[in-house]
Amino acid sequence: MSNENDQGQVPGERFTGHGAEWRDSELSREEAMVATSWVEQKIDKRSMLTNKDRVNDVRDEMWQLEKDGEIVVHRVTDQHEPVMTKTLYGWDKKIPTTQLWHHKSCGQCGNIPGYPASLLWLMNELDIRYLDETDQTSCTAWNYHGSGIGNIESLAAVFLRNFHQAYVSAMAEGRDPGYYYPLVHCGTSFGNYKEVREYLIHSAELRDRVKTILGKLGRLVDGKLLIPEEVVHYSEWVHVMRKRIAERQVIDCSNIRATIHPACHVYKMVPQDVIYDDDVLGGERVAVSTGIIESLGAQVIDYSTWYDCCGFGFRHIISEREFTRSYAIDRKVKVAVEEAQSDVMIGHDTGCITTLDKNQWIGKADGRDYELPILADAQFAALMCGAHPYKIVQSHWHASATEKLFEKLGIDWQAKKAEFEDYLKQIEAGGPQDQLYDPRRMITGGPGFKKIEQTT
Questions:
Q1: Whose CA, among 160, 202, 243, 326, lies 20 to 30 Å from 8?
Q2: What residue spans carry the region label Disordered (predicted)?
């Protein structure tokens, strides 16, 4: 008689879902503590550089490939009004501030719509020129990191296909190619695209394979692959614009204790490309998010597990979801509440905000209610500049309660909620809707676009 149950499991057997290659480490609790103790040490810029080989700047080889006629580089030019920043090794990185092509995030638009809405609202307030068209695809990183069934050709083809669309999109408005520069919303896309760019630049074989694919799609420039000079994350734009954003601040947040969760896919993937600013945390930690929160006057409070992943991790959010949930509570939310007495946790990536925000119920289910509002830096910045907490920031989409935070900020959330409910009734009755962006400009199409009238 078999000992297996109907699901093919032996009673007491631990099911991981990771496949036959997965093996338990069989570490004791003490051994596991030793193995991970380095995370709780002081991890700063110097420790990331110590005893590590200095990598080459991939852009040097990129320029040579263009000189050799292998590729075309989409440059950040003066028309994009770039701000120069410094990265981990002190290299220059250009951050375009206007004429931006929004590379949206599937997770933001589906789970946290106030995230991109807040970013567009800030750009409107600052009179930034941008294009928020619909002609893009997912980055496929979910496929690759989450399931392991993706391949490098598909990742590279989608990366270059999207950035080619950013390059040619302005032609539908009668402008020259390259007028808009892509701004990536999702931290996973950001890290994934940077890794894939390196693979493309270092591998002639990969370039040849992807070139064949994009040629069939009509996505080459003069018969060559188009490579971006910089891969830019929205949080980098927020960082270089932080002083201009703070000039529009209308809400005092000096009594707010904020903790920062830096996203793994933003600053641990291709770390040499990430902004370190001497004016933020002494240049010892990644500058994005912390910079804007400090500029707005909130108190940025340190906590021991700041370096830890949020718990999302891609693979185990699918196969070990309870690990994700418990990790998010025990290693991040609990520590921020108990150790830092945090009023809000600020992040800059889709998966992190979703994980830390929407899994707090698991602590409550276990009798440990560590309620902590989780917001993106763009959402908090927009809120401080007067954006509506429900129309724009859309806090009602969040699982973690924000009412106590609003009260501490002096925001009458009950009145704002009533305004929002009245607005929804107006829409339901067929009344006018507020628009952050002219919906007629959202569709330009790819190589087969139909020209539309140029708008100012």
A1: 326
A2: 1-28
